[in-house]
Design brief:
This protein is α/β, with parallel strands linked by helices. Helix content is 42%, strand content 17%. It contains twelve helices and twelve strands. The strands form two sheets. The chain has a six-stranded parallel sheet. Strand 1, helix 5 and strand 2 form a beta-alpha-beta unit. Helix 5 crosses helix 12 and helix 8 packs parallel to helix 9. The longest helix has 17 residues. The radius of gyration is 25 Å and the shape is elongated.
């Protein structure tokens, strides 16, 4: 390696161009000819020059970080280690790293209505990705109206303008219930909390399938955390005969249901068929393997980042709703 260079000005003198041209070339700006970008990049490598990214971000009014936030207004016991969240976090981190941004991760239990204002006004992030709307959809809507680089993994709810990426939850709930009805199951239960927008949409699809295909159905409000959901499911089953089919609002709830049913000697799927929602990696390793509605999480993570950076760069972006896929394994 040749003698090191310590500043943009030195590199500019060596390359015979302006400091601004060097800065834009090293940033990959397409306004600089490709040959010039390559020549300046080669000179920078030869002389061991690296841009001071912190100084550059300060000059441009950027932090270099994107906030990834899990709001837990409805589910205070949920953790960042939740399998669904982890399956989404990995692809998100990869996509942000590929764009040269750091990920600032936080789990928030809202105690006041200004929790999201505090995040976007902190000066610590250039944009925010929210994982789920929880019971905070109105807070999110208010902040999204004034802070454009904010994208939500969640439900596209009629009447709300926030930018979302998610699955067609109504279609997913409908296809799960319709499959059970077509298999001759007549007494269905939906396990999940309809106060959560995504779960509400899945329950809406569940009810639509019942209306179209007949049968009986009821909703059983169940928390996401395993210990809480297992207790609530056990209490429901102790109250009378079990349903012959269960649509769970998440795979984790479905797994809790299978555990409780097994402890009571109720065979899955012979006596009770169970279908989850998400298709987390663990789903195929339960006994029997869990049938579920697949969300295409890796693609969703890519879309979250694409839409966020469109907003960061001042471009327009629209919500995306992905099609669900019914994955049939052994449980239903």
């Amino acid at each position: 390696m040749k003698a090191p260079i310590g500043s943009l000005a030195e590199l500019a003198r060596l390359a015979g161009v302006s400091v601004s041209t060097v800065s834009r070339a090293l940033a990959g700006n397409p306004a600089i000819r490709a040959e010039t970008r390559e020549r300046i990049g080669a000179l920078a490598r030869e002389h061991g020059f690296r841009i001071n990214q912190a100084a550059r971000n300060l000059r441009l009014g950027r932090t270099g970080a994107i906030g990834v936030v899990l709001p837990l207004g409805h589910e205070t016991g949920q953790h960042l280690s939740d399998p669904f969240f982890m399956s989404l976090l990995g692809p998100l981190a990869d996509a942000l790293t590929a764009r040269g941004r750091d990920l600032l991760l936080s789990r928030v239990i809202p105690e006041t209505d200004d929790w999201l204002d505090a995040i976007v006004d902190s000066g610590r992030v250039d944009g925010v990705i929210l994982i789920g709307q929880s019971d905070q959809i109105d807070v999110i809507e208010r902040v999204a109206a004034r802070f454009r680089p904010l994208v939500v993994w969640g439900a596209a709810v009629p009447g709300y303008a926030q930018l979302t990426v998610g699955t067609d939850n109504v279609a997913g709930g409908r296809m799960a219930a319709a499959h059970l009805l077509a298999a001759g199951r007549r007494r269905l239960a939906f396990f999940g909390n309809p106060a959560v927008p995504e779960f509400a949409a899945r329950y809406q699809g569940f009810c639509a399938a019942l209306a179209e295909g007949g049968g009986e159905g009821r909703v059983v409000p169940v928390h996401l955390t395993s210990d809480a959901s297992a207790g609530e499911i056990a209490q429901y089953l102790d109250g009378g005969p079990p349903p012959d089919g269960i649509v769970a609002a998440s795979d984790m709830i479905a797994m809790s249901a299978m555990s409780v049913l097994g402890a009571r000697g109720i065979a899955v799927p012979d006596q009770v068929a169970v279908i989850g929602f998400d298709d987390i990696p663990l789903a195929r390793y339960t006994s029997p393997p869990l049938s579920t509605v697949r969300q295409h999480v890796a693609r969703g993570a890519e879309l979250l980042v694409e839409l966020l950076f469109a907003r960061v760069e001042g471009r327009d972006a629209r919500s995306v709703t992905m099609a669900p896929e019914l994955v049939l394994r052994g449980s239903g």
